[in-house]
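re: ur question from earlier - yeah i can do the single chain one, its not a big deal. heres the input i used so u can compare w yours
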Amino acid sequence: MQYAEPITKLIKAFSRLPGIGEKTAARLALFVLNSRKEYAEEFAASLMAVKEKVSLCSECMTFSDVDPCPICSDPARDAGAVCVVSDFKDMAAIESMAGYRGRYHILHGSLAPLKGIGPDEIRIRELVSRVGTGRVREVILATGFDAEGDATATYIAGLLKGAANVSITRIASGVPVGGAVEYMDGATLGRAMDGRRTL
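and the output i got, formated as tokens:
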């Protein structure tokens, strides 16, 4: 169907979002078109606020509008335990189990040489620097159990092996092989966290 040019542009913008096909993008664009002007203004302002006010926490690399983020600045969290995850969704999944009281480090990806993602493309350097401060006692590797997650965990474990007084653990395989941390339920993640092992 032929749409007016502004609608076509909005459909194209929505269709670039992950998991959004052209039909869904058209429905979203028409929803915005049929909504009140105030909603469209609020939606546009929310998009701009995310781009202008949210940045990476200088300690854990999570998305935050304050630096350090609320988790890193919480004195009740154990600064000596750092759980390393591939992305923000994995951190949110672990937080949802409400049993982990340490802090995090978000890599923003996993090693995937075939896709051109090496150590310099994700936040490994920042993790090594953080461990080098001497304040970290345990690094918990909570990357996925797929080939990329395993490769990332093994690489990081090798890098940190010589760090003084730091234990390196990996969450237990209560998370199924090939599974992504973000899709696990709280009980499974709790068992996996309790059964973590030293690498």
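The chain has a mean pLDDT of 93. not sure if urs matches, ping me
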